[in-house]
What does this fold into?
Amino acid sequence: MTDSTMLNSTAGVGKRALRWLVAGVLLAVTATVTLTAWAQHGPGGHGMGGPGMFMGSPEHMGRMVDHMLDGLNATDAQRSQIKQIAQAAATDLKGQRDAGRALHDKAAQIFTAPNVDAAAAESLRQQMLAQHDQASRRMLQAMLDVSRVLTPEQRTKLGERMKQRGEMMRERMQRMEHDRPKQ
It folds into this structure.
């Protein structure tokens, strides 16, 4: 093998490795954004209580709150207070989701550029963490506010429902993983 043939062969391998590296980084960023979104939605899902209930649209909060409170013997006053808390949180978190989308778009720009700027990627990661922290803080505050409206018995019952919902979700994920075709 001549030096030029070996150099061309090495360059081809280098380009392929670089493509795989970029694809891997894009996959990692996408997974990070996806996990952040999943964490914000929470395993409780919409309508079953937990942090995820605040991620719905503010317009649909009343229905989700009613669904969450069904079976808890909540008074009209409790329902009204919790709807106000949930609608305020959903409005605040809608802005958080929009900010998250903008960060996701920025990640796509950074990692598809001809030269990936490591400093820009790190800055973006820190922005994503800060955005997630802010959303998490807002959800926690809403959950604390709701907990002050519910009685200890109602919170216990709601917690049991959330736990059951989480178990159902885990089982569904396991079935999906088991049923997924092997590659």
